[in-house]
Amino acid sequence: MTETGAAALIGDYVVNALGGAGPLAVLAGIFIVSATITQFISNTSSALVMMPIGLATASELGVSALPMMLGVAMGASASFLTPFANGVSLMVYGPGGYKFGDFWKLGFLVMAWALIVTLVVVPLYWKF
């Protein structure tokens, strides 16, 4: 991602889309993009894909990279919307008699709560 320039390109896109609203909005965007990716691939892979993008975004904004990295980590851990995003969810999917839509009902609320907590706690402890 770094060597091909894809991280800088996506970082530029995020900054152009949300940079005018400040670093907190960019942090929210990084979280949401990471959380979206982690619904389809493992959280570790999602974090590895998003890490260079978070670094490029922080560099574009001229802020500390640590809050953006924490946004990536928290977003990559928010795999609550699909059963195949998390191994434990996938294990109980069949035996528990769950449907695909069951994960959206509570998963969206838990992910929204994780976003809110991230946006409140990260800037308190790790300044931009």
Automatic annotation (TrEMBL):
<feature type="transmembrane region" description="Helical">
    <location>
        <begin position="106"/>
        <end position="126"/>
    </location>
</feature>
<feature type="domain" description="Citrate transporter-like">
    <location>
        <begin position="1"/>
        <end position="124"/>
    </location>
</feature>
<dbReference type="InterPro" id="IPR051679">
    <property type="entry name" value="DASS-Related_Transporters"/>
</dbReference>
<keyword id="KW-0813">Transport</keyword>
<dbReference type="InterPro" id="IPR004680">
    <property type="entry name" value="Cit_transptr-like_dom"/>
</dbReference>
<protein>
    <submittedName>
        <fullName>SLC13 family permease</fullName>
    </submittedName>
</protein>
<feature type="transmembrane region" description="Helical">
    <location>
        <begin position="72"/>
        <end position="94"/>
    </location>
</feature>
<keyword id="KW-0812">Transmembrane</keyword>
<feature type="transmembrane region" description="Helical">
    <location>
        <begin position="20"/>
        <end position="41"/>
    </location>
</feature>
<keyword id="KW-0677">Repeat</keyword>
<keyword id="KW-1133">Transmembrane helix</keyword>
<dbReference type="Pfam" id="PF03600">
    <property type="entry name" value="CitMHS"/>
</dbReference>
<keyword id="KW-0472">Membrane</keyword>
